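Q: Here's a chain of 161 amino acids. Please give me its 3D structure as tokens.
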Amino acid sequence: MTKKERYRKFLEYIAANKPSVNTELKYYNPYQLIVSVILSAQCTDKRVNLITPEFFKKFPTVHNLAGATVNEIYELIKSCSYPNNKAKHLLGMAHALTERYDRAIPSDIAELQKIPGIGRKSANVLASVLFNKPVIAVDTHVYRVSARIGLTLNAVTPVHT
């Protein structure tokens, strides 16, 4: 079977079996999703879902979060992986949204990536879930396998989120 035939079969399979892709993160509004996405980097969705209820009680809005300290945030997320960096990212995100984006999450992927804690993968998750954009959030493992088996010719080093 040629490479072209393999790709055709692969695409036919995906088209016929379109998986319903949803996040396992629990959220009720865009602010809660962006917080959860930042926390989910190299951490399980299950752990994030354990952390966020108390987090959102203390910081129910991006405005509340922007008034926090890194230490206050850290205390609520310390059971998550890389809590020091994530606390700084969450505070930076809150400041960015309140100061540059009028408390709204931008829909543009390039603008999303300007927000602390939001890399390419996270920007694609947010754009897909919040704005129904036709983007795919690809993690490093999928990227490497896709490049290795020749699904992509763009073998660029992925940006980690």
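Q: Can you summarize the key feature?
A: The mean pLDDT is 88.
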